[in-house]
Specification:
With about 170 residues, the chain is of the alpha+beta class. The chain contains seven helices and eight strands. A four-stranded mixed β-sheet has the order 1-2-3-6. Strands 4-5 form a two-stranded antiparallel sheet. Strands 7-8 form a two-stranded antiparallel sheet. The relative contact order is 0.22.
């Protein structure tokens, strides 16, 4: 079977690390690190995908943290008006925030019967590396990542069947 005809459900990951909206960001990020993955879907109370939390969300959040500006004035480092407490509060807020506050809301999703080609096209068109796979009610059933598609290609799933090869040979 060629990838263009193969349903996403044949190559998706079904054991997906997911998060709740009110989960602590630091705890969620620790789960990602512990499992060696860089993202997971965020689910509402009914199991519907409402967001995607990635390590990039924390990095972007941390980039918004404004550290004090230090100027060297005639050999003396001078901190421009800034209070250490502001830095501490900003860092605590970034690490103490809920997943719902830092996630990417309304991620692109795909259905289990959509094709792997559809998934690859969406990933390319929307510059995403993974898509939560959802049922008709928007509930999570799996996740397909670029790596899943690459593995399918490498394993040879996209090779033509013997019947397809014979048809090509017979046409010559």
């Amino acid at each position: 079977m060629q990838l263009r005809d193969m349903p996403v459900s044949d190559v998706m990951t079904t054991e997906v690390v997911s998060f709740a909206l009110d989960e602590n960001v630091q705890a969620a990020m620790q789960q990602l690190v512990d499992r060696g993955i860089d993202a997971g879907p965020v689910l509402d109370a009914e199991g519907r995908v409402v967001g995607l939390l990635s390590t990039g969300d924390l990095i972007v959040g941390e980039a918004r943290v404004h550290f004090p500006t230090i100027v060297n004035f005639f050999g003396v480092n001078v901190t421009l008006p800034f209070h250490e407490k502001e830095l501490d509060d900003t860092m605590a807020k970034a690490l103490g925030a809920s997943v719902g506050e830092v996630m990417t809301a309304h991620p692109r999703t795909i259905g289990p019967i959509d094709t792997v080609e559809d998934a690859a096209t969406m990933m390319h068109d929307f510059n995403v590396s993974r898509l939560p796979v959802v049922d008709d009610d928007g509930r999570l059933v799996g996740l397909i990542a670029r790596g899943d598609i690459v593995r399918a290609v490498v394993v040879g799933i996209d090779e033509p069947s013997p019947d397809e090869i014979q048809q090509v040979d017979g046409a010559e």
